[in-house]
Specification:
Blueprint: H1 11-19, E1 28-30, E2 39-43, E3 46-55, H2 62-75, E4 80-91, H3 97-114, E5 117-126, E6 133-143, E7 158-162, H4 167-176, H5 178-181, H6 187-194, H7 205-211, E8 217-221, H8 227-239, E9 241-245, H9 254-262, E10 277-280, H10 285-294, E11 299-308, E12 311-316, E13 319-322
Parallel strand pairs: 4-5, 9-12
Antiparallel strand pairs: 1-2, 2-3, 3-6, 4-6, 7-10, 7-11, 8-10, 9-11, 12-13
Helix pairs in contact: 2-3, 4-6
Amino acid sequence: MHTLPTGKLPPDLLEKLLNKIPILDKKIIVGPGTGLDCSVIDFGDQYLVLKSDPISLTSENIGWYAVQINVNDIVTTGADPKWMLTTLLLPENATTFQFVENITDQLILATKEYGITIIGGHTEVTNGIDRPIISATIIGTVDKDKLITPLGIEIGDKVFLTKEIAIETVAILSNDYSDKLSKHLTEQELRKAQSYLYEPGISIYKEAHLIRDGFGVTAMHDPTEGGLASALWELSIASNKTLMVDLNVVPISELTKKICSFFSINPLNSISSGALLFTVHAENSKAIIDILEKNKIPVSEIGYVFGDGIGVNHIDQSKPISLPRPERDEITKIF
């Protein structure tokens, strides 16, 4: 029997499953769908925005990590995160009181940063796993006229990316495989890579808040598993708009290139939390660049919305070529 590889479900299978789910409540404004990372529910004067995501690719600072990853998706809708539930599964015969307390302290510290209240969840020691796994649900609110989803993308919009690709990839590999990398990197390079969690950082909270109001933003997306390539395809599918991108201007550091090359990973297809992918009306491009640069957040214009339909193309030798959609995240190849 064919078994599935590590990571997200293959795109075709996932979309088939999502299409089977019935929407039974008329209060659901946004339900499950490719490129629609948050659910949205009519809650009277405002919308509730909900997101669930696990931390499964690393065990480093997973409490703090779980908050950042889920907040990232919430803020891409223009919403403010308010409440959080967590499910924490801990490995049998390897869990101590101090270990659980450390993760709890990480959760408390990270949620305080954003004014989020932990309202419940579940914690247990379970068999069959060799490291902790945490899944979190964050609930936020947004005024009805401030909601941002990929459904708002329009032909002619510009496509931007903040920071650089594969930030999270570098953070995971340098922390979980430091012994291997120490033979390939200088001590200074390794320390810098290990600090990628915080600088450039995997949070997009600041930039999402800066640009969500009054700058003509039509969509925001957090490129997680599958990296920038998957995120571009997800935006295209969710909006039913084709995208044209220039891969030559996609930002990537020399350190990232060096680490990805060592592990034979394509950074374009590897987990990239920390970079905010967004679309904006063309006439607002300069204002967007100015506000981000003023706040010391690097930003690059990487393409534009070309037309109706589904597809992502890039320019190769002056000709548009279809950008392959990743079946899985590159980083899962090494686990």
